[in-house]
């Protein structure tokens, strides 16, 4: 049977989930109620008030896009498939589809003095995403789905990055109980590092 | 004419509907109103309160993903198409697109003492989905759309599973009038069984 | 240049818009506020109250799916493209993306005694969709984009159906000012006829 | 490695984001609360009231569709890829995914006497989109990703259009602080020009 076909449709479903999650994030940015706005100054103030929501939208959009780039590179090196590999990908999609919720929490509460649960949950989802990443690469390695030795090595590096990310975001998730603002800044910083690293990567 | 083409676009539309339904589920998880939260404890309590909604999100996500895996396997064994086959698929997509509504009902009401209508409707939708499944396989079998004898047998097994699922979820839907909580647990259990069975299936 | 490629991406965009419009319809079906429901009877009553919304969801879902089937058949017979053809398709997508709004109006107001504007608008959108259909087929015919004589004839039939649909839904839209309920039933009936006709069509 | 593949999946993701952004716009058009409507006249008045929202929906839909046509033509002339090219496309998708928010603001506030912030933001997003366009074409030109000399020239024209659009929408964004209505009309006019130009373009 045609295994490539299965991953082709997995790609189509994944692209759909990634694209929708990226675009749904903006739903949290709601136009202010026209009746509560009485002047241009009021309007600017309400937009200023929406800045943390826009910031968390930007962070989550970047995270989903980078994950998409990585996911694409991974699928490309795995021409074969298996049921566990498929369901590990399903788990990754679950964490992606879930992101709009902690993003909304982060945007609404980061500037309040009870932001901790939002930052804890946000990092917990990133840790869960790392678990999905470990499962996907592990399934591919165990079942020998990789294209060749090169792909095998890429998968191993990817899996080890997954372990690193799991430890990092689990720790951040715990520390966020006491220092939510500092952790939110750190979380953002880790993705700026990822972004710069990805920008320098060769996709040739 | 190119029949494969038609099913290719059916796959594209289906992947779209599956992906959107999976991602729309999370819209029910709404950030609590910042003005109703006065402390970290309040915030945790409101997240705890959202747990049944998260649970029903997880259940529906799993159901849609497993259905997607099965749908993909089915389409793969049917290279030809026909109008009834196309519209039977449309009916399946209808049940998929509808799932976010009973999911929201289940999440909001499962812990109240009037959960029955939510559980009844949820299982009724699963029964309707089984009907869609029976129609799809039946159309493919009648019009001789299957690729070969192997595919024919797979379709027959799939149709019989559909009959089984229809009886099961219709019964659960009726019993839920009196025992909603027990039925909700049973419904979840049936999908855990499906998940384990699917994970062990060979997609090679 | 590769013209097929352009229509391939037009198909991808169209499938996306069709799939999202179909799935977004369900957003109008909102779970009732748990605090307004005090008993199982209350819950059933609120679901009963949502029936017209579910009905208009079903009607619009059917309309979008049938339009998708027709759109697919049309694109298949047009291997070449042109800028006007592309933008005529864009206009069709506009009418599809717009459907969730009149659908919501229809569902909310059909059982009230001031349903007229909802039914007028609903049929006006169907008339606009017929215009899009005329434009698409006309552009394809004028620029000679059709695959062969057979395709040419199909396009001509399709265009004439478009003219018929435009006259029909324009008239219904006007009559709805005085007889909204009767027109809503008639509109639904026309799509049942379409559905039956489509089901009997040969897609081989 | 297969570079075409990467752009193929970039196209799939992009088509998803474009399609969803186009369809999400309609969510802002909400059915009026049935309890606030007591007569057919009330209903028509509330629909009339929604006209500016429908107008901004139409404008944004047109902008996204034209951008999609241009994006498609661009990707078609770039068979190779690179990490910066990929992330420049990600930035374009960010501006597309963001459009529903300023669209909602424009629709809600354009007829009030404090519309300025909405028009400023709307044009700022169009200026950001021009930046994305410059980045994409510049990345493709620098890394020599273009298919041939023809494609190279197309990219250069496209980049120069990007510079022009950036200057134009930045200026409009600033002027909108004082003359929001005039700028809103001008912005709409620029896209009508674009639409007419695109309609006359050869896609053969």
N- and C-termini, Cα separation of chain A: 30 Å
Count of alpha/pi helices of chain A: 8
Radius of gyration of CA atoms of chain A, rounded to a whole number: 19 Å
Strand content of chain A: under 5%
Describe the biggest sheet of chain A? none
Spans of chain A of at least 5 consecutive residues whose pLDDT stays below 50 are none
* H and E string of chain A: HHHHHHHH
Q: What structural class do you assign from the helix and strand content of chain A?
A: mainly alpha
Beta strand count of chain A = 0
Which chain pair shows the most residues in contact? Answer: A-B, 42 and 41 residues
Average pLDDT rating of chain A:
86
- Oligomer state of the chains in this structure: homotetramer
Shape type of chain A: elongated
What helical percentage do the residues of chain A reach?
A: over 70%
Provide a brief overview of the structure.
Four copies of one chain form a homotetramer. Chain A is mainly alpha-helical and 204 residues long. The first copy, chain A, contains eight helices and no strands.
Characterise the protein shown here.
The structure is a homotetramer of 204-residue chains. Chain A is elongated. Helices cover 78% and strands 0% of the residues of chain A. The first copy, chain A, has helices spanning 3-24, 40-49, 51-76, 83-98, 100-109, 116-142, 149-175, 180-200. Chain A has eight helices and no strands. In chain A, helix 3 (51-76) runs antiparallel to helix 5, helix 3 (51-76) packs across helix 8 and helix 5 (100-109) packs antiparallel against helix 6. The longest helix of chain A is centred in the middle third of the chain and has 27 residues, at 116-142. By secondary structure, the first copy, chain A, is mostly helical. Chains in contact: A-B, A-D, B-C, C-D. The A-B interface holds A 1-3, 5-6, 9, 12-13, 15-17, 19-21, 24, 27-28, 80-84, 86-87, 90, 93-94, 97-98, 100-101, 104-105, 107-109, 112, 114, 116-118, 121 and B 11-12, 15-16, 18-20, 22-27, 29-31, 34, 37-40, 42-44, 47, 57-58, 61, 65, 68-69, 72, 76, 195, 198-204.
């Amino acid at each position: 049977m045609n295994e490539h076909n299965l991953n082709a449709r997995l790609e189509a479903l994944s692209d759909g989930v990634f694209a929708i999650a990226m675009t749904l994030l903006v739903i949290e940015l709601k136009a202010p109620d026209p009746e509560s706005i009485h002047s241009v100054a009021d309007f600017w103030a309400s937009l200023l008030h929406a800045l943390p929501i826009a910031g968390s939208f930007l962070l989550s959009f970047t995270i989903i896009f980078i994950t998409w780039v990585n996911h694409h590179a991974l699928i490309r090196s795995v021409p074969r498939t298996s049921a566990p590999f498929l369901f590990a990908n399903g788990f990754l999609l679950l964490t992606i589809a879930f992101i709009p919720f902690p993003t909304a929490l982060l945007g609404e509460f980061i500037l309040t003095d009870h932001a901790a649960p939002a930052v804890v949950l946000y990092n917990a989802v990133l840790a869960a995403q790392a678990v999905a990443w470990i499962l996907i690469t592990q399934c591919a390695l165990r079942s020998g789905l990789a294209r060749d030795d090169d792909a095998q090595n890429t998968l191993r590096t990817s899996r080890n990055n997954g372990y690193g990310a799991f430890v990092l975001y689990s720790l951040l998730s715990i520390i966020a109980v006491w220092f939510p603002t500092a952790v939110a800044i750190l979380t953002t910083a880790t993705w700026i590092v990822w972004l710069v690293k990805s920008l320098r990567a060769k996709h040739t």
